[in-house]
Structure formats: structure tokens, C-alpha cells
Fold this sequence. Notes:
Blueprint: E1 5-7, H1 9-15, H2 18-33, E2 43-47, E3 52-61, E4 64-72, E5 84-91, E6 98-103, H3 105-123, E7 130-134, H4 138-150, E8 155-159, H5 163-173, E9 176-177, H6 180-184, E10 189-192, E11 211-214, H7 227-230, E12 233-236, H8 239-245, H9 247-252, E13 256-259, H10 260-264, E14 276-279, H11 284-301
Parallel strand pairs: 1-6, 7-8, 7-10, 8-9, 10-11, 11-14, 12-13, 12-14
Antiparallel strand pairs: 2-3, 3-4, 4-5, 5-6
Helix pairs in contact: 2-3, 2-11, 3-4, 3-11
Amino acid sequence: xxxxxxLDEAQVRQHLHMADLIPAMRQALIEFSTGKVLQPVRSVxxxxxxxxxxxxxxxxxxxxxxxxxxxxxxxxxxxxxxxxMAMILLFDRETGAPLAVMDGRLITEMRxxxxxxxxTDLLAPTDAHxxxxxxxxxxxxxxxxxxxxxxxxDEIRIWSRTPAHADALAARIxxxxxxxxxxxxxxxxxxxxxxxxxxxxxxxxxxRGAHVNAIGACRPDWRExxxxxxxxxxxxxxxxxxxxxxxxxxxxxxxxxxxxGEALAGKVEVDREKTTIFKSLGMAIEDLAAALLVYRSFLNxx
Length: 302
């Protein structure tokens, strides 16, 4: 039996591109919400001390079988280390043979932003031109890249709990650093990519018809969005996961309108004129679809 490939982050970066990843995420979301994917909600263990989490995310689709093993260590932010690190294992669906082991940190970063781009393309105003990002880490920059594929933003506003980080990011991307409220008021698209456990976005700041991509707060008792924000039209990646893992959904008792894949498949209509919230938790099928892109690209270039 042939030994499985091992691809490090540098090799993953060579073979993964937003132009390919965004449509792949769109298709993965549709397949998930139309019952073509077998995917249990991730299993998560707390690691105490130092205050980390270890997650296991398996999935089975028509063309793929695999699992992501992911760690989430918020204290790493103070150690100049990534808060999210991961490995993805791909297997041959027909034989069960291991095909590849690849670094999953970059895949997680890029596929999360690509899914937000899919949501933004479907839910945000077609003439959106002002983007507000609450947060200044790797997801902030990845979202700038991905959302720029589906909308053209004339103005980009940045807020961070660490003002120096907001200033640095704003300088790199020619944006403007400002308070959270100033950033959000009047913005067409808002992205929350923070490590906050309490709400950083207030619903009364949002303009009518704005679209929000909510990425942080991945635990049942964590929040990024207040109740007023969650009182809008809420779309999720996985209904089952959101009802078990999302503090924004659970604590606000928000009504979930639909899964993103259901809307993409035309099973549920979404009124784009309403203020929309996409609560993203991340799914194993997204990781597998991205890893499969990398694997196939690598084989094609050998």
C-alpha cells in the first residue's frame, strides 16, 4: 500500500486558492443541507489547564472521507502562537486506505472566510460598499480577501479590543481604525471575528438591510452578538450544531430561519432586504472539501 502524502502548511498554501475554494464551499454547503453528507456534530474536550479545546470533526460525502483534529487555545494569543491549529486526514472512500495527512490551520482559516463569502454573496446587498470588521487577527485578513471576491468595498473599517492591532491592520489594508460603534453604523457588511465571550456587536448599530457574518463565539456560553442583533433573520451553517454550540443562538433564544445550504439550494427563501445574520461555526465537510482541492491539485502537478 502506498504511503499517505504529508503536506505541510507551505504546500497547502501553494495548492489552495480563494477562486476555487469559494465555489467548493458553496457546493459543500448545498450537499450538507440536502442530506448528502454524513456528519456528526463535532466532539470537543476541554483541556484544563491551560484553557484549551480539542475537537474531532469527521465527515463522509459522496467523494470523500476524513476527519479534522483541531485545537483551539485562546491563551496562545498571548504567546504569539496561532489560537487554532489542526491536522486533516483524508481516506479513500472505497477502501478506507489513508490518502493524505495535511496541516489544517490554513485550511481552517481560508475555508471559514470562503464560507462567509458564500453567505455574503447570497445575503448582502448587491451594491454593498462599506465593510466593518470587528477583530484584527488572521480571520480578519482572510475575510478581507474572500469577501473582496464577491463584493467591491470602497471603505473598510476596523475595530479591535487592542487599538494598536486595529491601527496596524488598517494601515496594511488602507482601511480606517475606529470604535466598534463607529465601524458598524452605516456599514453594509459586518464581520465579527473576535475571541470575545461577551457581545461586541449591538443590534441598534446596524443599518436596515445590513448583513453580518458572525464567526467567533463557538461555545454555548460565549457571545459576540447581543439579543437585538439576533432578533434579525438568522441563517446558520448547521442547525444541529448551532442549537448545541452557539451561545449567540442559545442564549438569545433566536429563531433560526434556515441553513445556508438550504437557501443556496432554493429550498428556503431569504429576503435580502432584511437585516441578515449568518452564524458560522465551521463544519467538517468544509474542511474535507478544501482538503480534497489541495490533494487533487497536488496530484495534478506532480
